[in-house]
Amino acid sequence: MEIETTRFGRMEVNEQRIIVFPKGLLGFPEHTKFALIQTGEENYFFWLQSLDEPTLAFVVTDPGIFFKDFEFSLKEETQQALQMTDMGFAQVFVICNKVGEWLTGNLQGPLVINAQNRIGEQIVLNDKKWTTRQPLLRLGAEMALAKSA
User: Fold this and answer.
1) pLDDT, tens digit, for every residue of 84-120?
2) DSSP state, 88?
3) pTM of the entire predicted model
4) What is the spatial distance between Cα 116 and Cα 47, in angstroms, rounded to a whole number?
5) Which superfamily, per CATH, for 2-138?
6) How far from chain centre, in Å, is Cα 85?
7) Does residue 51 surpass a pLDDT of 50?
8) Who's near 66: CB < 8 A, 6+ residues apart?
9) Helix/strand/coil percentages in the chain, nearest 5
10) Distance between CA atoms of residues 124 and 39, nearest Å
11) H or E stretch including 80?
12) Torsion of CA 118, 121, 125, 130, to 10 degrees
């Protein structure tokens, strides 16, 4: 599928990289279809590019890379909305933002995607352990990855 972006121009995206968020994302309920764009083989960050709006794109990452203890339970209603029959197919991303000299992640509002059918939803966690601007890494500094247990 060919899409238009302001960052990368016109580009071809594999259909397997298209994610549908039936409820949209927080603040963007009318935008429901996005492409997950990987910009490099060993890059831990992706672009979540709107298919409807070339100027709308978010940097996202897997929070488990930075916080090995990041976990939460998915409500039954969310599992049903995602048609999630096997939690092993749940992929989690967080939207990143630059705040001062830090790259932060919205760990309070992760994106959960069913990798089997590519349906996603942004959820809001009640756990105050994580914030909407959780520091991930200092820009210009080397990235410290979470170690496997």
Assistant:
1) 999 999 999 999 999 999 999 999 999 999 999 999 9
2) G
3) 0.89
4) 20
5) BH3618-like (2.30.290.10)
6) 21
7) yes
8) 105, 136, 137, 145, 146
9) 10, 40, 50
10) 28
11) helix 76-81
12) 60
